[in-house]
Design a protein that fits this description.
Layout lengths: L4 H4 L9 E8 L5 E5 L6 E6 L9 E4 L12 E5 L9 E14 L2 E2 L2 E6 L16 H13 L8 E8 H19 L3
Parallel strand pairs: 5-8
Antiparallel strand pairs: 1-4, 1-6, 2-3, 4-5, 6-7, 6-8, 6-9
Length: 179
């Protein structure tokens, strides 16, 4: 039996407050790993063209589906760099609204629920303005040398992030059926 993290892992029992996130890319990495949708394996998509590093652990939420035909992306803040394919309980605190080459590509922002250095954060408004600018800068710059345009529109609160999460779960069920 094959196990595909996108389809076979659970998004958790406490949605929309916390979710299970599957990490693809550890914080401070230049490797762009992606889940291979067919096999469920982690694939090296590319090494980032620019001299920038992921500012947070990056991954997706299982059993979600978005307009870009991928699962919903998530950034998980923690004091540690998490291993790829790590399953982590993440508390939703906000969302970064983004356009990647003109298409919506939202990124939920969360904190690791089991990391006491960040678990007290409940909303994106509690993060430092400088860190928000670091996130914006990374996502606006990381594809420039590939001649691709990314536009970070705005950062929104936990309430909207949870609505986006629920919508992506509903879209998954519509596309693939309930498990």
């Amino acid at each position: 039996m094959n196990f595909n993290p996108w389809h076979d892992a659970s998004y958790g029992d406490n949605v929309p407050h916390t979710v299970n996130a599957i990490i693809e890319i550890p914080r401070n990495s230049r490797a762009k790993y992606e889940l291979d949708k067919e096999t469920g394996l982690l694939k090296l998509d590319r090494v980032l063209y620019s001299s920038v590093y992921y500012p947070a652990n990056y991954g997706f939420i299982p059993r979600t589906y978005c307009d870009d035909h991928d699962p919903l992306d998530i950034l998980v803040l923690s004091q540690i760099d998490m291993q790829p394919l790590c399953l982590v309980e993440a508390k939703i605190i906000g969302v970064m609204r983004m356009l990647d080459q003109g298409e919506a590509d939202d990124k939920l922002i969360a904190v690791c629920a089991n990391d006491m250095s960040v678990a007290h954060v409940n909303d994106i408004s509690e993060l430092s303005p400088h860190f928000i600018e670091e996130l914006r800068h990374f996502f606006e710059e990381y594809k420039k040398l590939e001649k691709k345009e990314v536009k970070v529109e705005e950062f929104q609160n936990a309430r909207l992030a949870k609505k986006i999460l629920q919508h992506s779960i509903n879209d998954y069920t519509t596309k693939f059926g309930a498990k």
